[in-house]
Write a structure and sequence with these properties.
Low-confidence stretches: none
Helix content: 25-40%
Strand order of the largest sheet: 2-1-3-4
Oligomer: single chain
Largest sheet: 4 strands, mixed
Mean pLDDT: 95
Structural class: alpha/beta
Shape: globular
């Protein structure tokens, strides 16, 4: 699951394209299938979103929750791909984007009535 935060006036107009860019990177780097898009957007009022100096109102936070197992170089490739594609496709400067990968053990995930470590029919690999 991916959660994206930003100032509503800046985030709302680009939600669809942002979702496409992020998911495209998830597909190309992690091999995620097209139908495994789980994105949540949290548009915030300007006075509810404090961010570091040197950033613009386009400042966007992307939290990617995933099962543990990806190699550090794979995770770094994902982060760099997202930075690159957001700048290329949406004009979002890397200084205005923060990406956090949050890993949980497969037994800490619950979906389709089971835990992640019980799922043996995933259409993607976790250990990449």
């Amino acid at each position: 699951m991916i959660v994206v935060y930003g100032i509503k006036e800046r985030l709302n107009p680009i939600k669809s394209q942002l979702s496409d860019v992020i998911h495209g990177c998830m597909q190309s780097v992690l091999g995620m299938p097209e139908d495994k898009r789980a994105h949540r957007f949290v548009p915030l009022e300007r006075d509810d979103f404090y961010y570091p100096g040197g950033r613009s109102d386009a400042y966007t936070v992307i939290e990617i929750n995933m099962m543990a197992g990806r190699k550090p170089e794979t995770q770094k490739a994902l982060i760099k791909a997202i930075f690159r594609e957001l700048e290329s496709q949406l004009g979002l400067a890397p200084v205005d984007v923060e990406i956090t990968l949050k890993e949980q053990q497969p037994y800490q995930w619950g979906f389709r009535g089971m835990t992640g470590d019980e799922a043996n029919d995933l259409k993607y690999k976790v250990k990449v």
